[in-house]
Amino acid sequence: MDVNGWVVPRQCAMCNKDVSAEMAPRCSRCKAVIYCGHACQKQHWKDKHKGNCELYKAMMEREEELGLKDFIFPCLMDQPCKWLGLVKVHGKGMWRRMCSCFKEYEFGLLPAYASGTEAGVWSLESGMCPPDAPLLDHLGTKEISSMTLLSGWAEYYNLRGIPMSSPVAALLSFPLSLYHIVTALNVATKTRLAKGKDITVHYLGPEGELDWVPAFSELAYLLGSSGSLHIVMIGPEVPLALSGVSTSVNTKLKLTFVKGLYQDESSSLPPPHVVVALNAGLETYSTWPGALEVIKSLNIPSFFTDYSEPCCGNAKQVLRASGLHISYPVTPNPFRSPVKIQSLSNNIPSFSNGFVLGVNT
């Protein structure tokens, strides 16, 4: 587990003891779970792992399939600061929100960037980030006017002329996952956009996204001459200074920020065509059941992403407990971050926005 010069730390799944990455024994069947020794492995099998081993084995068999091999920058993260340092963006531009070094600043209120150019926002060399300009055809001479339908990262990078050595996919995963939902997964919003109509997205629980608004501006160019997007970001992490504020990127994209819980604010918001929550963590936050009640009553297509298949399994239980039927099954998200998140105690494939599922579709 030595990756680009550092050793990834590991931890026993049973007792949480730190173990050497090279010496840590794994479950011999699924290869997923890490232990400090055979005593903990035996106890964990009896207590918990026996019921999960076959499922974990199936997940591990998909590890190679889930890896996005086109990228040629480091694609394993155990500590955000280390990874950001490797790709030379630690403490810079929008990347500052990918680690805890600027946690004293509220979401959405990071200090101003070094410059107003896309290079300053992204803190990358020219040509390594999406230009603040419309999409051009393959000859680079004619502006693409129609809505762009994308199948994955390679197509997007090629379209924008970005080399596969650029790490921008780690941030663009958020706006492009949203774009994938409204232009591919949800037929109603795709049709509406194609007809030149507006759609409203209720975007629940934003955090880092509040500092990544420049990345979301890419959606305005992808939409071309089709309809427009109004993204209403609602959540308790929206700072008071931003609540009620709207910002527009030409006529194609408008973002509005609302502080509060969805169940408290939904009645005062413009009606949605789709509800989205990225890296939702439905089993993690106690406020989700109230929000899911609203989604159930609205009967509006709603999509959730999460890091891994076990997270999505927990999400399905929460959704079903709220009386919602899983109508779009758990599926790998083609616009997941290419950077695998290394858990301390298991090897199960995990990515920001790794998998997507939906209800009311």
Q: Could you provide a short overview of the structure?
A:
Residues 12-53 form the MYND-type domain. Pfam families: MSS51_C, zf-MYND. By secondary structure, the protein is of the alpha/beta class.
Question: Could you please describe the fold and organization of this structure?
Answer:
With 361 residues, the protein is α/β, with parallel strands linked by helices. It has 13 helices and 14 strands. It has helices spanning 38-47, 53-61, 63-66, 80-86, 118-122, 153-160, 169-185, 187-194, 213-216, 218-222, 262-265, 288-298, 309-321; strands at 2-3, 6-7, 10-11, 18-19, 76-77, 199-204, 229-235, 246-249, 253-259, 274-277, 302-306, 326-332, 340-341, 355-359. It has an eight-stranded mixed β-sheet, with helices on both faces. A two-stranded antiparallel sheet has the order 1-2. Residues 1-5 have low confidence and may be disordered. One of its GO terms (molecular function) is zinc ion binding. It comes from Ceratopteris richardii (Triangle waterfern). Keywords: Metal-binding, Zinc, Zinc-finger. This is MYND-type domain-containing protein.
